[in-house]
Amino acid sequence: xxxxxxxxxxxxxxxxxxxxxxxxxxxxxxxxxxxxxxxxxxxxxxxxxxxxxxxxxxxxxxxxxxxxxxxxxxxxxxxxxxxxxxxxxxxxxxxxxxxxxxxxxxxxxxxxxxxxxxxxxxxxxxxxxxxxxxxxxxxxxxxxxxxxxxxxxxxxxxxxxxxxxxxxxxxxxxxxxxxxxxxxxxxxxxxxxxxxxxxxxxxxxxxxxxxxxxxxxxxxxxxxxxxxxxxxxxxxxxxxxxxxxxxxxxxxxxxxxxxxxxxx
Length: 264
Known about the structure:
Elements: H1 2-8, E1 14-15, H2 27-40, E2 45-49, H3 54-57, H4 67-84, E3 90-93, E4 98-102, E5 114-117, H5 121-130, E6 133-136, H6 141-152, E7 157-164, H7 169-179, H8 189-192, H9 196-203, H10 208-214, E8 216-217, H11 221-233, E9 238-243, H12 248-259
Parallel strand pairs: 1-2, 2-5, 5-6, 6-7, 7-8, 7-9
Antiparallel strand pairs: 3-4
Helix pairs in contact: 2-4, 4-5, 5-6, 7-10
């Protein structure tokens, strides 16, 4: 997908939001894929990393570590990735990963920035220490403060806003409930559930109004602008918008017509 985007665009900035380098895919493989992508779109790619969700990561039968262990693994994975981006033959013998006599032969002129997803303070502090930027899906100021206090001051901070544009509020709410009921789940379920069936069962406890509270629904431009402003007020300097449902063309035209002109 990233290769197709690279071939079909010239100016668009692209980043993974986010991929996990700790279990299912070895960080050395992520390093190679990211280096190749960055070489195909010079200066336009960033690598967004996170500590993963069990649904995606457990498929090889490995144990699903606790959050603190996953952050340790993520920190070491970043070290492996950056080592390989130097372009030299390298070995790494760490607590979680081994790389032996590895080298990447296709590298961009400059390594892409690494952004780390963080909702809690521990992950935000790690992002400030080892990453080039922060990603969060909630307009919370606390991760920004922890990120900046641990070395992230002056680095970019990305917020992900989830919306569902449709021609009416009712249609948007119905679409959001159909395609994104996990938006109404509480607590750490999204990172701890192992199977799609588990998400289906949990989603049965979610109502349409629950999803509408977490997803900006409908064609009211002021609601979309207010949600973007929440991220700005919390300290985020980039906001990317995730449209729920199949009507991507209608969403793009709405933002082109109603939102972007009002943001300067």
